[in-house]
Specification:
four-stranded parallel beta sheet; 142 residues; alpha/beta
Length: 142
């Protein structure tokens, strides 16, 4: 059972039906992230999941991609689209404590989301990321 989701996104931030996919050079991002087999990647604020799908393609079954977004419709569609894949869609808000296991994530990807966060959400995001990232993983952006 999925946790209760926000129908319209974070703090009035609506993305349903919209995507930042055309604004991002995916190949440049993927090269910079230097993904490795077996990693657990969290796509926080995944929207329609276009980057989560790219991460899963690169990991080729050797890791796990968690696609997290507070929009129940986007997560529902992504869940239907990724049945049987290494993508685990979750309807939750990364600026609050999630149901994810502590110290379980190798890489957190957040794009086109942070600008919509309030100061309180930024603080919550930092706390949750510190809780989720495995020991020894840099908290710096690359």
């Amino acid at each position: 059972m999925m946790p209760e989701c926000l129908g319209s996104g974070i703090r009035g931030h609506h993305h349903r039906g919209k995507s930042s996919e055309d604004l991002i050079d995916k190949e440049v991002v993927l090269k910079a992230l230097n993904l490795r087999p077996g990693q657990v990647i969290l796509d926080a604020g995944c929207g329609n999941g276009y980057m989560a799908k790219e991460f899963a393609r690169i990991l080729n079954g050797s890791g796990k991609v968690i696609a997290l977004d507070p929009d129940e419709i986007s997560i529902g569609e992504l869940s239907r689209d990724t049945v049987g894949s290494s993508i685990m869609p979750i309807c939750e808000d990364i600026s609050k404590k999630t149901s994810l296991e502590a110290l379980s994530v190798d890489l957190v990807y957040l794009s086109m989301v942070f600008h919509g966060f309030s100061g309180e959400q930024i603080d919550g995001f930092k706390i949750e990321i510190d809780r989720l990232l495995k020991p020894g993983i840099s908290r710096e952006n690359s």
